[in-house]
Write a structure and sequence with these properties.
CATH architecture: 3-Layer(aba) Sandwich
Distance between the termini: 19 Å
Function: Probably part of an ABC transporter complex. Responsible for energy coupling to the transport system. Part of an ABC transporter complex. Responsible for energy coupling to the transport system.
Subcellular location: Cell membrane
Order of helices and strands: EEEHEEHEHHHEHEHEEHHH
Number of helices: 10
Structural class: alpha/beta
Number of domains: 1
Membrane topology: Peripheral membrane protein
Pfam families: ABC_tran
Number of strands: 10
Organism: Nocardioides exalbidus
CATH superfamily: P-loop containing nucleotide triphosphate hydrolases
Length: about 250
């Protein structure tokens, strides 16, 4: 198989207070995959994600993105390659208009003029928000702000899109619209989520992190139908949702 886009090997990390969050994590994600990162609260998911673009740096182990080590010397390029969409869109939208927010990252890379405009409009087209380009973000619905937050990352033309709880606080229509958008993107996706039906719908593969180690790396359907694994790591399906009735969804 080809070189992974994301390659995490033996990643261990302890916070300054001594709390050990990761104990030798291995994770490999290949180009075009959509992978769900599952696990209970406190499993180390956020700590792992923050290593993928150098917000945190490894105590032990290595993280590479398309062969480039995540290290201080490469942080600008790593952060272009790995885009993180945070759980709260208001953490990413802080300027006066949608256009300004989506242009912010590419402008910092030195883009301007027609090329910058092309990046902005292309990113907004991909999330169905081009008609809102001159609107203030705070006038948008929560679901629309979530889509604009995705566009701010897509405008950087990343190789990997990391989504932190993308379906949280969305109404059913917004949840479905975002799923359609994510399916349409030609980008590698790592999705951190507690929304197990969303993981099944969007991600053919799931990695389960628990107490700082990977305890499963299998097809999502297999993970969600392994009752012993689910119970052992505090993963619970919504009441009445049975993956066995739905079957394994296509990617």
């Amino acid at each position: 198989m080809s070189t992974p886009v994301l390659d995490v090997q033996g990643l261990a990390f302890a916070y300054p207070d001594g709390h050990q969050a990761l104990f030798g994590v291995d994770l490999h994600v290949h180009q075009g995959e959509r992978v769900a990162l599952l696990g209970p609260n406190g499993a180390g998911k956020t700590t792992l994600v923050l290593h993928l673009n150098g917000i945190l740096t490894a105590g032990k182990g290595t993280v590479t993105v398309s062969g480039l080590p995540v290290a201080k010397a490469h942080l600008k390029e790593i952060r272009r390659r790995v885009g993180i969409v945070f759980q709260d869109p208001d953490d990413q939208l802080f300027l006066g208009t949608v256009r300004q927010d989506v242009a912010f990252g590419p402008a910092n890379l030195g883009l301007k003029g027609p090329e910058l405009d092309r990046r902005v409009m292309d990113a907004l087209d991909r999330v169905g928000m081009a008609d809102f380009v001159d609107r203030p973000p705070h006038h948008l619905s929560y679901g629309q702000r979530r889509r604009v937050a995705v566009a701010t990352v897509l405008a950087m033309e990343p190789e990997v899109l990391v989504l932190d709880e993308p379906s949280s606080n969305l109404d059913p229509a917004s949840r479905r619209e975002l799923a359609d958008i994510l399916r349409s993107l030609d980008v590698t996706v790592l999705m951190v989520t507690h929304d197990l039906p969303y993981a099944l719908e969007l991600c053919p593969r799931s990695v389960v992190l628990s107490e700082g180690v990977v305890v499963a790396d299998r097809p999502t359907f297999d993970v969600l139908t392994d009752d012993e694994l689910m119970a052992a790591h505090r993963l619970e399906l919504p009441w009445g949702f049975d993956p066995r009735r739905i079957g394994s969804l296509p990617g």
